[in-house]
Amino acid sequence: MAIIFDTERQTFKLDTPSSSYVFKVSPKGYLLHLYYGASVPDTDLDYLRLNLHSASFSANVASPEEKGMTLDTTWLEYPTNGISDFRVSALSIRGATGSSATDIRYKSHKIYAGKPGLPGLPATYVNSDDEADTLELTCVDELTGAQVVILYTVFTKLDVITRSVRVTNTSDKSFRIERIHSTAVDFNDSDFELLHLQGRWAKERTLVKRHLEFGLQGIHSKRGSSSHNNNPFVALARDGYTEESGEVYGFSLVYSSNFAAEIEVDCMRSTRVLLGINPEDFGWLLEPGETFTAPEVAMVYSNNGVGGMSRTYHKLYRHNLCRGEWKTKKRPILVNNWEGTYFNFDDDKLVAIAKDAADLGIEMFVMDDGWFGVRNNDDCSLGDWYVNESKLKGGLKSLVDRVNALGLKFGIWFEPEMISPNSDLYRAHPDWCLHVNGRERSIGRRQYVLDMSRADVRDNIFNQMYKILSSANIEYVKWDFNRNLTEVGSDLLPPERQSEVAHRYMLGVYELLERLLTAFPKLLLEGCSGGGGRFDPGMLYYSPQIWTSDDTDAMERLEIQYGTSIVYPPSTMSAHVSASPNHQTGRSSSFKTRGDVAMAGAFGYELDLTKLTDDERALVRQQVEAYHKYYNVIQDGDYYRLINPTEDKANITSAAAWESVSQDKNEILLTYVVMRTQVAISRYIRLRGLDPAKIYTDTASGRKYSGALLMNAGLNLTGGWKDGESRVWHFIAE
Ligand code: GLA
To answer: What is the pTM of this model?
Structure first.
């Protein structure tokens, strides 16, 4: 078992391959955190506690057995509000007394093999019970009758511990959950950098690093989605860490809506990390007998730096989060018509692109926005999911059949959660969008957001989608979401439940996604939100790939993909070759570089193929061949970031480089892209993760190197590199 309970010491010890996580139950039932870090064999860790019970102004726990312990300076496993721990709390419940003081004490526990699912929520899962063990710790707040079950799942082959919490009202009076974080970890020092992924539309997920300071710090989203701006992920990296060395603790929330990471460094320099649903604008009324389940956090421990943490997340999310038909199946190379035509297309135009796609070896055609209602720009028709037959003459089936006849699969775009004021749906149901009666409805991208907390709204959208998807051989859906939630109110809920709407909205979206996948289990779903505005583990549970950004410029994508790779595997990052000059930045880059950059993700094209020159067509053929040749090493290999494009300090040039290493270390793919060059560059690049004893052959030149040489001396990249030039090396071990 990866989880043991030392009865004598009342201590729980959770062990992953290279980490230990230890906490104990105090005589009065408090859960005291003791340790999270590199593996230790001991369970006697009590001596680590601060024992500063005499600190003046601290309130002591009134119990002789606790020797005057104060929660004020104690590391706690799941800290609650208002009972002598004055740091930011994980749980706050306002009971019938009107007080939000919350006091949970240990009652019982069970340990078992495997991992349970979370009702209505996405979560990591095990493929067989020997992949993980689970601890369910039951605590009770006697006054409110809140039964709090803290769930820990410990993965046996990955350095992952997941946590979640469920609260059941066992009393005969309702209470209100006002804060409920999914995880809480207290560290005994604050010698860490806080890492997180910050961004905005078309510039998602830039890695930000800042040293922890006294007081509160953190990130959050209150946009009704995980957002372009902050990703539901933070890490603490112990001082002295690098990309490939040192201790890094990752915290990643499997959720797609409002979240908060609250990190507090207190007066003793202890650090508390909380991650879960954003407490702002949140409250949940729990009636007797009801249960609330908080989403899951996946915690990763790495003693191989940020890179080690990323590789663990990549494995976890590829094998234990993504699901279904397309989980690890080779994804079709697609061409999407958005940047090729925008709204300006008809069936013949699309078929012309599909014809060229077939000729070039592309495997799927995706019809983007503009095929439904009367939509010729973004000011109408969301919610009217029926085919615009003046654009698609002969209807959808005829178009899909024509594309299929060329040997291509067919995919389609939807934005199921939205409604245009100018739509038949809105005219029929003006109360179906999120709104607060008496308040003006904010508009974003000329659309409102449907109230997905309502079952009748979801049924309507499901039925419309079902009709379209069963009308023709449609094998892929791009599920878009193009604005944030405002005036988050629902007509069907009473005033005291309006603070539940954002979470109920998300649960509704998850339910709709599940329903769609149950009806069409072979469907490949691609998530999207104005590019990568909802690129999070919650969505990956349903859509194994997500459109990474609306910025398709190769140079910008280097930075966006770098940041995204901190948590998410290449197979999840949709990346397309688009036209040059780029539509977003106006920058020109070579067709080859655009292909090399897109190849680091779920590969495809996003341009009008009928406009390509013969040279470009030849390059598409080469790229398609490369995709098939390198697919396994890119998607199943270990990913190493070699040069960070956002902070390349080489002063001779700025560049990006990354590398994929097959699990048996016999195949290596290295990509190097020069972003801004200077003349007379000298540069060496040292590879990572190879077997030092193996001899690797560069398959292009035939030159042989030992793994040790490639890792210690590196490749010599001295030479006349041009702006935007890229190169790929492929090595095979003998
Ligand atoms: C969003 C998506 C784009 C495209 C448009 C269509 O911006 O990110 O890829 O689908 O919507 O309106």
So the answer is: 0.98
